[in-house]
Design goal:
With 76 residues, the protein is an all-beta fold. 0% of the residues lie in helices and 37% in strands. It has a three-stranded antiparallel β-sheet with strand order 3-2-5, with no helix packed on it. The protein has a two-stranded antiparallel ribbon with strand order 1-4. 3% of the residues are buried.
């Protein structure tokens, strides 16, 4: 299950965290406006290790929405 930071924690860098699984690749997509859809290419692709993964997006002033997808890694 993914976790998120709350408004009270905004002075700290925002991050996405989730428990990963070996043999899976996680892709992070972003959007600043959901009516325009998601980024064509993922902004990050992270291989699962079995441990918790943390993705810290670049800091900026724009509101952003995130989507994380998962697929079997090419090696499995």
């Amino acid at each position: 299950m993914a976790s998120r930071t709350t408004r009270a924690q905004q002075s700290l860098p925002f991050s996405l965290r989730w428990q990963s699984a070996v043999g899976r690749t996680y892709s992070v997509f972003v959007s600043t406006n959901l009516t325009d859809g998601w980024s064509e290419s993922p902004v990050a692709e992270i291989d699962g290790t079995g441990a918790e993964i943390e993705y810290v997006p670049p800091q900026g002033n724009a509101s952003m929405f995130f989507k994380v997808t998962v697929r079997l890694s090419n090696n499995y």
